Amino acid sequence: MSSGSPASASSYAPRKILITGAAGFIASHVTNMLIKNYPDYKIVALDKLDYCSSLRNLIPCRSSPNFKFLKGDITCADLVNYLLVAEDIDTIMHFAAQSHVDNSFGNSFEFTNNNIYGTHVLLEACKVTQKIKRFIHVSTDEVYGETDLETDIGNPEASQLLPTNPYSATKAGAEMLVMAYHRSYGLPTITTRGNNVYGPNQFPEKLIPKFILLAMKGEKLPIHGNGSNVRSYLYCEDVAEAFDVILHKGVIGHVYNIGTQKERSVLDVAADVCKLFRLNSEETIHYVQDRPFNDQRYFLDDQKLKKLGWQEKTTWDEGLKKTMDWYTKNPHWWGDVSSALNPHPSISMLTDSTDNYDTLFMKCGNRTETQTGADSGLKFLIYGRSGWIGGLLGKLCKDKGIVFEYGNGRLEDRNSLVNDVKRVRPTHVFNAAGVTGRPNVDWCESHKAETIRANVVGTLTLADVCKEHNLLMMNFATGCIFEYDKEHRQGSGIGFKEEDTPNFIGSFYSKTKAMVEELLKEYDQNVCTLRVRMPISTDLSNPRNFITKISRYNKVVNIPNSMTVLDELLPISIEMAKWNCRGIWNFTNPGVISHNEILEMYRDYMDPEFKWENFNLEEQSKVIVAPRSNNELDASKLKNEFPELLSIRDSIIKYVFEPNKKT
Ligand SMILES: NC(=O)c1ccc[n+]([C@@H]2O[C@H](COP(=O)([O-])OP(=O)(O)OC[C@H]3O[C@@H](n4cnc5c(N)ncnc54)[C@H](O)[C@@H]3O)[C@@H](O)[C@H]2O)c1
After folding, report:
1. CA–CA separation, 29 and 235 (whole Å)
2. In whole angstroms, what is the distance from residue 415 CA to residue 216 CA?
3. Is residue 396 within 6 Å of ligand 1 at its C-beta?
4. Would the CB of 560 count as within 6 Å of ligand 1?
5. Could you tell me which of 656, 386, 441, 663 has the C-alpha nearest to residue 547?
6. Does ligand 1 lie within 6 Å of residue 657's CB atom?
7. pTM higher than 0.85, yes or no?
8. d(CA 371, CA 427)
């Protein structure tokens, strides 16, 4: 429970909350906080995944069985009516909105549609279904209009609404409807009017993240007009706590300002960002044309919410520093946002930027949702039934209660794949089929046509069939398409990244895999490439297990490599499918481990008498046909998405040696 501990015996206790706009900035913080602090609450997150939202914002929730994400638009009455009944919602926290004032000077119809009509749809659905016990409507300080610079008295909640720009006008319009549904139909509404919020997860069209990203690139910070406009800024975690208090203690029919008395001019904000980045503010700040209308100030009376027990905790310096640290650590969170960093970004420049969410996307085709939990609605079609990874995947699905079927078709036979898709009607396809060679990749050197048929023609055909049927293909590929080079020296800790071009074609196997990876980039909308390396599993009796292999060799080379512990990473591949991850991923545990380090562990955990001999690469080349690749892959992209991912050493200990320990 959060430090304010607002949920007490006398407070409101929601059961199942619908949070609209949950993949946006503020709502994602509120959702993450509620899931963490209230394990009994169930949350359905609804978002249309507009340009300014990201499923990454909800990463902390995704493994919770109480969390479900639905991609959908609040303006769709059928969806909203259905949702309230089917999900048995008793509480709504309504954040979804077009929220960027600059855009409202351009395409204001979108603002009316989303902010007013969308709210109306929600209210009407509540009226019809009659099950809602709390409707928390999220509005803004901007509905009060401009505050005099001279006054010390903030707007109390009873003030008149005098919006000045199209955004705030639509927010005020929505409030009027909320008020009317409360009065006419007794809908239990509570409205919030908040000051500006800042912190991690915010789309960089907004002032603070924009300044931070520009400062990170050493670019100029644009100030609208003369920069004297004053705003009050609250840190996102404090705001999430305010919603916690309002949800549990807010009084029906009331309005609550969420405000701070600490104000800052836009110029001060720019100067503080310059200071944090040690930039000369006189050289860095530049002045651009003002907005068509730019309110001088929004000053709120914040007493009413304080009386409920809420308090702002984060100082400006602390909050700005935390925000800067977050953007510095996550520079690619929003992909390519160069157009949002313009002094006056407009929606028309941004509408395609959903393509920039290179890692996570939701499909709008035959399936519009991803969920977690047993009722996930997932159905996997898996190729590679008789293979190691394919077999493990099936077992994992069984354990997790995920419906799946193995494909009957041959990868190179298009019709057979289409028949499988029609028969199974999957939500996702996993490709763990292909030839790797038995007993090892040397087989491919003498079976080139067979290798091409399965690994090239087959994989590409399956990707194409998936594209035709709007399905995501999770493709188990290999990281053995790189070898240490001058820029990525052995022991340097600099690994190959997802975007690096393969540099190892020493074996025919690797050559075909590198070619396919290149061609699959043309299918980037529906293929997720997982570069597996030297797979390891808990089953030491399996001859394909890298540890089993090297423990049985007469002699081994001793080179550090990136490796994949399947017991840890295969469940992650299922998570990635649920979240519709796409593009290329180094699918290894972070770090490298050498053959000798593994064999030392083998000796310590399994057999104190175990001995082995090393030989060098030259000697090794005499007993193998094709050269082998040795490399380090940079696993930071995966680690970023799955922070709990263990280093290769820790993972091997946890999943292989501890469970098999004999000494
Ligand atoms: N950011 C601030 O400083 C601030 C201050 C006061 C009030 N507010 C209000 O708080 C709320 C959230 O603001 P934010 O800054 O997090 O905004 P945001 O732009 O980051 O998030 C808005 C979210 O709503 C979603 N959305 C928009 N239209 C939708 C629709 N028709 N159906 C489903 N989803 C839709 C978007 O995809 C996005 O994820 C808004 O209502 C805003 O007016 C924001």
Report:
1. 11
2. 52
3. no
4. no
5. 656
6. no
7. no
8. 12
Query: Closest ligand 1 atom, CA of 74?
Result: 32
- Pairing type for strands 230-235 and 263-265 reads antiparallel
pLDDT in tens, 451-460: 999 999 999 9
Active site residue 47: no
Mean pLDDT over 409-432 rounds to 94
Contact residues for 59 (Cβ-Cβ < 8 A; gap 6+): 641
Domain boundaries, the chain: 16-202+235-264+294-316, 374-539+563-593+630-645
Please tell me the distance from the alpha carbon of residue 550 to that of residue 287, in angstroms, as a whole number: 64
Do 318 and 325 touch, CB atoms closer than 8 A?
no
Q: What are the pLDDT digits (tens) for 600-610? A: 999 999 999 99
May I ask the CATH class of domain 16-202+235-264+294-316? alpha beta
Token pair listed for 385: 């039934």
Ligand 1 lined by 53 (C-beta under 6 Å): yes
Distance in angstroms (rounded) separating the CA atoms of residues 4 and 279? 38
Per the CB < 8 A criterion, the answer to whether 246 and 256 are in contact is: yes
Q: Which residues pair with 571 in a beta bridge?
A: none
pLDDT tens per residue, range 126-146: 999 999 999 999 999 999 998
Which own/partner contact pairs does 156-165 have at CB distance under 8 Å and 24+ positions apart?
Answer: 156/257, 156/301, 156/303, 156/304, 157/193, 157/254, 157/255, 157/256, 157/257, 157/301, 157/304, 164/293, 164/295, 165/101, 165/104, 165/105, 165/291, 165/292, 165/293, 165/295
Annotated catalytic residue, options 50, 102, 141, 442: 141
Q: Does this chain's domain 16-202+235-264+294-316 share its CATH topology with 374-539+563-593+630-645?
A: yes
What backbone phi and psi angles, to 5 degrees, belong to 397?
A: -60, -45
Strands in 428-431's sheet, in edge-to-edge order, are 403-406, 379-383, 428-431, 472-478, 527-532, 583-586
Distance (Å, whole) CA 469 – CA 71: 19
52, 99, 210: which to mutate for ligand 1, most atoms within 8 A of CB? Answer: 99
Angstrom distance (rounded) from CA 523 to CA 520: 5
Distance 50 CA to ligand 1 centre (A): 10
**pLDDT band at residue 504 using 50, 70 and 90 as cut-offs:** confident
Catalytic residue status for 142: yes
CA distance 106 to 571: 45
> Could you identify the atom of ligand 1 that is nearest to the CA of residue 192?
7
Q: Let me know if 141 is a catalytic residue.
A: yes
The mean predicted confidence, pLDDT, of the chain is 89
For ligand 1, say whether the CB of 175 is within 6 Å of any of its atoms: no
Fold for the domain defined by 374-539+563-593+630-645: Rossmann fold (3.40.50)
Instruction: From 81, 74, 13, 10, select the one nearest 45 (Cα to Cα).
Output: 74
Residue 3 burial (C-beta neighbours within 10 Å; 0-12, 13-18, 19+): exposed
Residues 349-355: contacts with CB under 8 Å, at least 24 apart: 350/51, 350/52, 350/103, 350/205, 351/51, 353/51, 354/49, 354/50, 354/51
